[in-house]
Every structure is written in C-alpha cells, then in structure tokens.
Amino acid sequence: MHGGDVQITAREAGTVTVVEFEGHLDTNTAPEAKERLDGLQDGGVQKILVSFEKLDYISSAGLRILLATAKRLGASGGSLRICGLNETVSEVFEISGFSVILSVFGNEAEALEGF
Amino acid sequence: MSPPGQIRTIVIADGLTKDVLSPDHPYCAGYENVGDREIERLFGRGKYYGDGPLPTFLRAVADGGPANGCGLILLSPVGKEGSNGTGGTGTIFVEPIEELARGAVIVPTKDVVIPADSLREAFGTLGVSEDAFADTRFLVVGCHTDRRILGLASLLRNVWECAHVAISPHLVGSATQEAHFAALRHTLPAAGIEILLDLEVTAEYVGLETQPFSEFGCKPVSIEPPEALDALGDTGRHIVELLCLNWTRARLRPLAGGFSGSLLFLADGWKGGARTEPLVVKIDAFAQMRRELNGYHQVKDFFGKHVPTFGYPIWSGDSIGVGMDLAAMEGRPQTLQDTFEQADREDSLELFLRRLDKSLALLSDKLYGNTKDVAWVVPYRAFGLHTEQQAIWMRENANLILSYLDEAGSDPPKVDPALMEKLLRLIAANEDGVDSEVCLCHGDLNLANVICDDGDNIWFIDWTHSGKAPLELDLAKLETDAKFVMSKEFDLDDLPRLRRFEEYLLSQRIPAEAANLPEDLKFVKWDLRFRRILDAVRRIRGACFELKQQDEWLVYRVALLRHVLHTLSFDKRRDRGECELPQLMHALYSAENLVFNLVADDFHLKIRGERPTSYPPRLRISIDEAPWLLDCDEYDPPYHVDPSVLENDRMIVEGGWADPEDIGLIADKLAGMEARFRDDAGRPLNPHGRTGIAGRGLLGYWACNLYVSATVTRTSSETGHTEILLGGREDEVKLSLPRGFVLFEETPRAAIARVLEDKVGWQPGEADGEVVFEGFTYDRRQTDHAWVETQAFLFHGLADRTPGTLKAGGEFDELRWWPLEAETVNRVPSDQAHSIRGAVTRLIDTGQLDRSEGDRLLERTG
After folding, report:
1. I want to staple B412 with a disulfide (CB 3.0 to 4.6 A). Which of A92, B447, B495, B678 is the partner?
2. Entry pTM
3. Nearest to residue B393, comparing CAs of B412, B413, B415, B420?
4. Domains of chain B and CATH, by start
5. Residue A76 forms contact with B (CB below 8 Å)
6. Which domains, ranges and CATH numbers included, belong to chain A?
7. CA nearest B452: which of B360, B516, B527, B381?
8. Residue A60 forms contact with B (CB below 8 Å)
9. What confidence tens digit (pLDDT) does each residue in B500-515 have?
C-alpha cells in the first residue's frame, strides 16, 4: 500500500541534531530509522529534532520508533522534538494521540526556538 | 457504699440445682447436667467442690451483699425433688447453695419459662420498684448461658429496659462449650448486655470487696505486645478479649500493614503454659466487615479448608471483630510474605517457590478455573484507570519520589512525570476492549494474605474486596507486591540494574529462566534478590496465562499499571506504607515502562474492535490506516445492516425509524449533508475514519444518527445535596440517563421532551433545558456509513416541581434520584458520563453546584 524507501540525513543546528526523513516511515523502513536514531544517542546526542517536512507517510511502526527515542532521551536528560508534518502524517498523529504526547512544531525554525 | 437496706444491685442465679451442677450419680448423667469440666470450672473439684468462683461469689453476696445494697434471687424449678416451689427446704439446690437459699429470695420456675411476674415481685420484695429498674445493676449468674441465662438477661435489658445488665463468663456455664462461647461473644453483647471478663471487676460491679477473688486468676486474656494494645484501643482490646475468652495469653502479629494498618492479626495463644491453635483476628468497621463476611460466603464453597473457618462476629461500638480458625494446621503458621522475605539462600528460596506454586495451583484450580467466563473487558475502565484522579496522583507521587532522589544526591536514570502523565491520559482514555477471562477474584491478593504452615498447607484470608473481575486483577497484584512492596533489600546503587531488569520483565510475556537471560542481566542468576523476583514472576504469569485462551497479555499489563500506580503511594516517609525510596523508584520505573509499552501496543495503535454481538467481527486495521485521507487499497470491511433496520424503513413502514437501504431514494438528503469524506456512491463517511465495518449495522440513518440525552438534577430538599435522575434495568448493573434517538424531521428539543415523557413521566416546558454538550460520540454500533452524535441537555431543579409524578417507562424498570457524586457517575456508561461531566461543569459555572464538590467529581470520573 505505502511501500517505499526512506532517506535519513542528520545535520547539526547548534546543540541540536536535526534528523530529516524523506519518503515512507513504515514497517519496512522503521528498523533503519531506529538504527540511525539509536546510533545518534549512543554517540551522546541529547537533543534531536526530527523533521518530517519531506516525509510522505508514517505507519504505527514509525510511531513506535519515535516513542522509543523519546523514552531513551528522557532517561538521560535529553529531549525530542518533531516538526513539519504534512496533512497525512498530521492526521495519523491526531488519531493516534501522538500530537499530544510528543512535542510537535509547525516548522524547523519554530522547533529550534528555545530547544 | 449504699445506705443499709437500700438495694442497688441484684444478682439473679439460675440453674444451681443438683440436676445441673452435681458431679454425683444419678445427676451427672442427666441431660441438664453441664458436665465435669464446667462443674469443676465453676464450683471446684473433689474436696474443693464448693470453693470455685461461683459459690464463693454467691456466698460473698449472701454474707456481705445486703450491707452493700446487693440482693440475691435464686430461681428454683417447681415440681422437682425436694422443692415446694417457694423455697425453704433447699434440698433441690446443690449443697454449697443450700444454705444460701435460706437468705435469698426464691423465685419458682417451670421448664423453660422465664417467670417475669414472679421476678418483678421478687424485686419488690427486695425494695426495688419498677421505677428504679433503670438505676439498678443486675448480674445474672448460673447455668445455662445460652438458654435461660440469655433469656433472663435479655428480659431485663431488652424488655424492661434496665440500663445495667451484666454477665461474667467466670460465673456462668453451659453443657455445650460452643453455645456458651457463642452467647458470650455474640448474642449477649448484641443484646446490649455487658460482659465482665475480670472477676474482680465483677465483684466491684456488685459492690463486693475484690481481694477475695484475686486468687482465682479469672482475668481477661493478656495481650502482647504493647504496640498491639495501642493499635487496638479500648474497643479492639475488648473484642480480642472476647475472641480469646478461653486463652490466658495472646500474642498478636500484624498480617498486613504493620500495627498502623488495618487490624488484621495472627494471634498465637496460650492456656496457662500450653500453646493453643492460632487464630486469625480481624477487626474493622461494620460496613467493611460485612463485605468481608460476604466475600467469605462467596468463596468458601469453592475453597473448603483453604479459607479460615469463621467464628461468631463480635460487636463493640461501631466495630466488629471476627476470629478465624485455620483448619488442620501443622506447626506454626506464617505468611507467604514471611517466606519470601526469608528466601535469602537457595534452600529457603526453594521453600518459598514451592509454597507459591501450591498457592497458585489452588487459586487456579478451585477459584479462577472454576468460576471462569469470557466477557468483553474494557481494561482501563475495569481497573479504574480512566479517572482524572489517577493521572493527578501519578504526577504528584512521581514528583515527590524524584524530590526524595534529589535530596539523597542520587543520580540514577531519570523519568519524566509530565510525559508519563500525557501517556497515561492517552491510553486511559481508550475505551476499547477485548474478549477476556473474568472470574471470581480475591481482589486484594498480596503475599501477606496467604498463610502457610510447616506442612505447606495454604489458607487465603481477607476477602473484603472479592468479586467477579478480570482474572489478571489478583495475579498482577501478586507480581506487583513481590517486585516492589516485599523486595526491601535494594538500595539506590541498585537502581540502574533494577530499571534494566524491569524493562526486560515488561517486554516478555513469560520471562526466560535466569540462565537464559540477556547478557546485560546475567547478574540475576547469582543475586538472589533479583532471582526470587524473576522466579516468582515466571510462576505467577505462567499460572495466569495458562488459564487464558488467547495469547494477549494486554489486560495483565493494564492490571500491573493499576497496581504499580497504587504502589507509588505506599510511601514510608509519609506513613502510607512499607516502601522506602529504592522500592518507590523501582515502581516508578515500572510505571514508566508500562505507559510507554501500552501506548506502543497494537491495542492502542489499532482501530477499536468493540461491536454488538449481532455484528460480524470488525476488520482490525492499524490506526495509521484509519484516516480516509490515506488510500488503503486492501481495506475491504464486511458489510452489515441489521434486519431490524430494514424492517423499519420509514418509506415503507408507517412510523419507521430507518432510512431506506436504497440510497437513490434519499439522494437529495445525502447530497445536502455536510461531509468531509464520501465514498464512491456519494455516501458520507464516518468523520473519525475507518471503523472496520461498512453499512449501517444497527443504526437507522445513513451518516449521522442524532441522540439526545437528559441530565436531570435537583437539590434535595432533605439533604441539601445535588441529585441526578437515573434509570436502571433489572438485567443491567449500569445506570442510564434518559435518552433516545431523534426521529426523522423531529427537532432535538421535541425529541428530548418526548424521551422524558416516555421514560420518566415528566414533560419539560418548551424553553426548559440547556445544551451542555454536542458532537460526535463513540458508539459501539458505529460503522463506516453510520455514526452517532449527541446533544446533551441539562435540566436542573425542574423535574421535582410536581413530586410523585416521575415514573419509570421505556427500557427502564426503575427510576431513582442518585447523589451526584463520582461513584454514581462511574456507574453509567462512559459516553453518558461525558454528558454528565459537561452538565456538572455547567452547574459549577452557574453557581448551582459547589465548586469543590464539582471539581472532586470531575477528578474522580473520566
């Protein structure tokens, strides 16, 4: 249904690591996303901004990855923010309630402010 | 001391005759005789016959009583050997009493009759008129405690309303010990008769010198340790003294919560130097104890000897105490908690696990498996997690625990209470359910409520909270208790390992054996503090899941969450339990893991599966596939329309309440509806996304089916409290608001007026009522093509203007005004609870409901 790849790139924005997702974050691509996010945390990254501006679709598997990242960062005193949800991804966040439990911002500039 | 001749106390003695109290033939063989043991206890033995407490006491009354204002009345059977029924010969009485009879007032009696008129005359003979009954002290002595002694005391106290009527166990006796104790412990106190357990106090009561009676040692049981006496208070002490009436010493050990918790003890007893069988003693308020007794009655048929045998309950003030025997006990009893805490070596761990295995096998076999049923379980609601209060408590407790950690200067892995609260609110609002096992449960199963003996016999105690509940309720409690409450040996340095360990335990339905754990948990194998938790958890979950038909363990984890949130408050620093900081932090880690795991669980990330039984199963897609915005080519749900809908097509049947199935006939109506999404045929689609069933199911109209409900409230003229009108059905535990669907071309106001007239017999005025909520409402009947929206009205202070007119109608069998409080609101289905909460908010805002009262209700409902 939503088969596709995901491209993940990471860059620094001050003390924040911005991780951009492009394509589909679903059951097939979630392991790769987990590996990238875990790798950043293993390397000591404390502040992660996940940018979904170029993400077309997210499945429940992708939601689980975000949750695991938020939990792990929280334990070490770090934090996770998310920005740039398109209408489809936003609807999934709304229905699942993740828009309430995770810190979601309209765009990258808003998300970086005060992070 | 009274003036000479003025009688202030009357001692009435019955059953002091040869046929009752003589140890000699032929009397001792008669059915009236109380037997050697009682004769010896009351009168003395052999050459000392006549020197026992009863004749000594009566001699003192006869000799010195009158000088102290004390009169003696002896009841004497008519028609027995040697008696003329009026006294004088004395030959009917046993020898030590014969001489006393000459100075006493004799009252003739016959068979089982209580000679009320003759007694009144006898009082008159002693100079006590009826006017003086209330101020006179009465002491009834003799045999048989459970028969005429009881009748005499009851006549005085309950019929003639004498305020001071007493009995001393040392001066009464019966042929049957059980009947004797039942009368002393239960029947006589319940009739308002004072039981004087100390013979010296009894002497004082009738105005005698106490010193001559000290040698008998007729004292109440001596209670140890001093903390127990402090915990018991006067009322509790009196109850324990009555329960342990035939003991000389009782040593109490608290079974739960220490001496500061509920009064539940294991009482070790002595008679002189000899140990007695121990007794479980529980003292509680009347309402609580009634629940306990009801609980025992519920389970005793299933559990037989594995629940204690109840003695007669004892009233004292507002409290009731009960003694419970543990049948066929071998050696000394201890709780399973004791065994767990002592499991610090391989052999003692083995003992604990053996007893745990046996406990679980008994519970599974005799209780859970025996009463098991499958039902629709809405887990967060079933375990009371849906209320606002739970989220508040969790946040407050978590912040407090973290502040303790800061004070201690410790820096273990942190948790984020604010995020945990959001996660809890999200999952707890999920009102979906699963088909799951429900059975008769204990309701408060912890290791202290399981008693074991040296022969590994098991008893389960404290059934106050028993009832039908999800199977997981008890077993998740047991796991929580073992992990956090009972595991007291951890310190702050252990927290990182405890966190990893708990994370693992909550990731596996049945955790692996110690030897097969992941590399980072290898320490569990050699650290018995961890291993006994692992072994206990493996066994508890094994017992639970063996009874389940499906592999899910969602309900178990929700039950764990319920119990662990409760554990966060068992704070020793606040004197609320036994948990020190490491235990509380361990529990907090568990709560954190559970809320994260449950948010990520399929149960939360799939669309709701609830449906009426007539529906086909829903297609359970992930919630990310639910939005209509997303293409979902594989989505092919079953189509369902109930026959009752087709039979009520309003275009065919007069008064029909359903649209036609052929949408071409109502094309204009459908086209005119506002709809964000439509299917290829132009039918509006459920605004909350895919539901897993197409068609209308049981709903009459395509698209929105509008419901109206009425929250009817009043301020009670009797109590001043706010009340709500709710209906009930005989076959339903739940209560309900008056409500119904809006019919075709009917306005919501006309609909609510019709519903109220039909279901409660009251017609509101046209302008009455205000709308407190309107919008989409989850309804288990919903489909892709039909859903429910509600308009909820509030009517305050209007419906009782014409008292007596309200009458149950429609689906209601019963209609009642209920107090508007959380317990009431939690008894209505959740969709209606939302309407009531809206009404409560309006009542607060308009000053018609006290704000603190209203806020309390809103916190405790959801």
Report:
1. B495
2. 0.79
3. B420
4. 9-216 (3.40.50.850), 222-328 (3.30.200.20), 337-605 (3.90.1200), 619-862 (3.90.79.10)
5. yes
6. 6-112 (3.30.750.24)
7. B360
8. yes
9. 999 999 999 999 999 9
